[in-house]
Specification:
By secondary structure, the chain is of the alpha+beta class. It is built from 12 helices and 16 strands. The structure holds adenosine-5'-triphosphate (ATP). It comes from Streptomyces drozdowiczii.
Length: 344
C-alpha cells in the first residue's frame, strides 16, 4: 500500500502495570473509513489519543505516521493535518454555535473574512444555520454533535478521528451523522472511527479491526469478518408438533431443537447447496416446514466470538481467512473450534 493516511507499527501503551496496547499495527489507506471496535476499556480511546498526538506512545512503540507526517519528529504537522472529535464535546455551551465556529477559525489563524465564510458554509452543511445565533447549551444532543464535528472541520483536516461519534444519538441523528461521514470520505478525507455500535462499523467502515486484550484480534472488511465466525444457521419452524418431531428425527444430530417454539436450527453458511440439501432431506421424508429463515452471522457474532474473556481467546493462533474477493480478513485470535475450517 502506498502512503497510507495512518501507519503505525508496534503501537504500545501501558498505564503502570496495565498494558493497554501491546504492539498493534495500523495501515489505513487515504480516503477510507477504518473502524476500531473493542469492549469497554479495550484501549480504543488510548489509540486515538496517541495517533492524534494528545498522549505520547508507550516505550518500545515503532514508527507512527499520520497524514504523511512522522508523529515523533513532526507532531505539529500531524496536528495541522487532523481533526479530532472525542467522546466529550469541545463545544462551549455559553457561546453560540456560530461563535464556537468563529473561535475555531481564529485558532486556525484564518483571516476574519475567511473565518466567516467557512463558518457560514459549515453551519449550512450541518443544518445549523437557523440555530447559529443561539447558545450551544440550548442545542439538542444531535445538534451539539454536529456542531462538534463542524468545529473539527474548520481547519480542513485530511484525517479525522471520530471517537464514538454517535453515542447517545437517536436513530435519525445517527443516520444523519453517517451521511455526513460518507460525505467527508467522498471528499477524500480519511476517517478513523471508534464505535460501540457494530451496525455503525458495518454501515461505514471499509476496514474493521477488533481490539481485545491489547491486541488486534481480527481485521478485515465487515463481510470478511462475518465469514470468520460461526453463527450462520437455517431455522425451520413447524406448527404441527408431529411434523416437528419427524423433522428432528430425520435431521438428527445436526439440528438443535427448540421444543417450545417447535423450531430446529441447523448450522449453515447460507449457500444454495446447503439449503438444497436440507430441503431435499425434508422432502425425502415428506415433511414440510411452515417457515424457513436463513441467519447469516452479523458483526455482533464476530464481536462476541472474538472478545470472549474465557481461555479460548487466550490461546492465540495466527490464521488467515479465505475470502471470495481475494482479500483476507486477518485474525489473530483463537476462533471457536467448529469454525477452524473456514479460517484455515
Ligand atoms: N490516564 C490513564 N491512567 C490510567 N489508566 C488509564 C488512563 N486512561 C485510560 N486508562 C485505562 O486504559 C484502559 C483503556 O482505556 P480506553 O479509554 O482507551 O478504553 P476504550 O476502549 O476507549 O473504552 P470505552 O469503550 O469504555 O470508551 C482502561 O482500562 C482505562 O481504565
Amino acid at each position: 500500500m502506498t502512503n497510507p493516511a495512518i501507519a503505525a507499527n508496534g503501537l504500545r501503551k501501558a498505564y503502570g502495570e496495565k498494558t493497554v496496547l501491546d504492539g498493534i499495527d495500523f495501515s489505513i489507506p487515504a480516503g477510507t473509513v477504518f473502524a476500531l471496535l473493542g469492549p469497554n476499556g479495550a484501549g480504543k480511546t488510548t489509540a486515538v489519543k496517541i495517533l492524534s498526538t494528545l498522549i505520547p506512545p508507550g516505550e518500545g512503540s515503532g514508527a507512527i505516521s499520520v497524514g504523511g507526517h512522522d508523529l515523533a519528529t513532526d507532531a505539529q504537522a500531524v496536528r495541522a493535518a487532523i481533526g479530532v472529535t472525542g467522546q466529550f464535546s469541545a463545544v462551549d455551551g455559553l457561546i453560540t454555535g456560530e461563535e464556537n465556529l468563529l473561535l475555531m477559525a481564529d485558532l486556525h489563524h484564518l483571516s476574519k473574512a475567511e473565518g466567516r465564510r467557512v463558518t457560514a458554509e459549515l453551519l449550512e452543511r450541518f443544518d445549523l444555520t437557523e440555530a447559529a445565533k443561539k447558545p450551544a447549551s440550548t442545542y439538542s444532543g444531535g445538534m451539539k454533535r454536529r456542531l462538534d464535528i463542524a468545529m473539527t472541520l474548520v481547519g480542513n483536516p485530511r484525517v479525522i478521528f471520530l471517537d464514538e461519534p454517535t453515542t447517545g444519538l437517536d436513530p435519525r441523528s445517527r443516520h444523519g451523522m453517517w451521511q455526513m461521514i460518507r460525505g467527508l470520505v467522498g471528499d477524500g478525507v480519511t476517517v478513523f472511527l471508534t464505535t460501540q455500535y457494530l451496525e455503525e462499523a458495518d454501515e461505514l467502515a471499509d476496514r474493521i479491526a477488533v481490539l481485545h486484550n491489547g491486541k488486534l484480534v481480527a481485521e478485515g472488511s465487515a463481510e470478511e469478518l462475518k465469514r470468520i465466525v460461526p453463527g450462520g444457521h437455517v431455522r425451520l419452524r413447524f406448527s404441527d408438533p408431529a411434523a416437528y418431531r419427524d423433522a428432528a428425527a430425520h435431521l438428527g444430530g445436526d439440528a438443535v431443537r427448540d421444543d417450545a417454539a417447535l423450531a430446529l436450527q441447523l448450522p449453515s453458511d447460507g449457500t444454495q447447496s446447503i439449503l438444497r440439501s436440507i430441503l431435499d432431506r425434508l422432502d425425502a421424508a415428506g415433511i414440510e416446514a411452515d417457515e424457513l429463515t436463513v441467519h447469516t452471522p452479523d458483526l455482533d457474532d464476530v464481536f462476541f466470538a472474538l472478545t470472549e474473556t474465557d481461555t479460548d481467546t487466550d490461546t492465540k493462533t495466527d490464521t488467515e481467512a479465505e475470502s471470495g474477493t481475494g482479500t483476507a480478513a486477518r485474525t489473530h485470535a483463537a476462533v471457536p473450534a467448529q469454525n477452524k475450517e473456514s479460517v484455515r
